[in-house]
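QA checklist item 7 of 12: single-chain prediction sanity check.
[x] sequence parsed
[x] length recorded as 236
[x] structure emitted
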Amino acid sequence: MSVEVLALVAAVVAVAAFVQGSSGLGFALIVAPVVGIVAPGALPVFLLTVMIPLNLYVAWRERAALDLRGAGWITVARLAATPAGLVLLMAVPDRHLGLLVGAATVLAAAVSLLAPSFTPGRAAYLTAGAVTGLTETATGVGGPPLALVYQHRPPAELRATVAVCFLAGEVASLTALFAFGQARPDQVAPALMAVPAVVLGVWLSRLTHRHLNAARMRITVLLFALVSGGVLMLGL
């Protein structure tokens, strides 16, 4: 990434870290379309790497609200689906990765907007984990299935459980990507340079996460995802 592109991405990352630190979702939906436009070769490694410190902090901050049972079932399915996500990534040519990211973003945001209220059970946890393992490994976008499961739960429970599930999944996906030659060390460097932006965004979120209207922020993030994902798709 050039200095100008890195500065733009860092600004977007800071905003996305604030949003996710406050509401529990939105980071990948905000960052993935932007990175897909300006530096598509950085996906999905950039997203998976830069989200590790974000989710580590949120998981620790909200640890008292963690849904351990749900996180366990989701993580089992998430890890089991990681190889399928790796196969999908290997099957998609680099020039089409942006289109895949855009489509995954739009579909995930649309489903999240339209899904009715429900009480999650084991089947919902396993389905969300499997879909997340597939899409996050291939594109870096995996939050919406988890958001669907927890969207009607208390905000702290959503933030804690989604962060823990993401953290386990990101480590597994990165390990698989490097093990099978689908990730390179030079793809990690821009993510490491963006970590200060993550720290800034998530630090700001600690000042506001108990007071923001999470429902309104969720709608704003999903609408942004629809627009930016559509732009990414149309630009290819």
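[x] summary fact logged: The CA atoms of residues 65 and 157 lie 5 Å apart.
[ ] second reviewer sign-off
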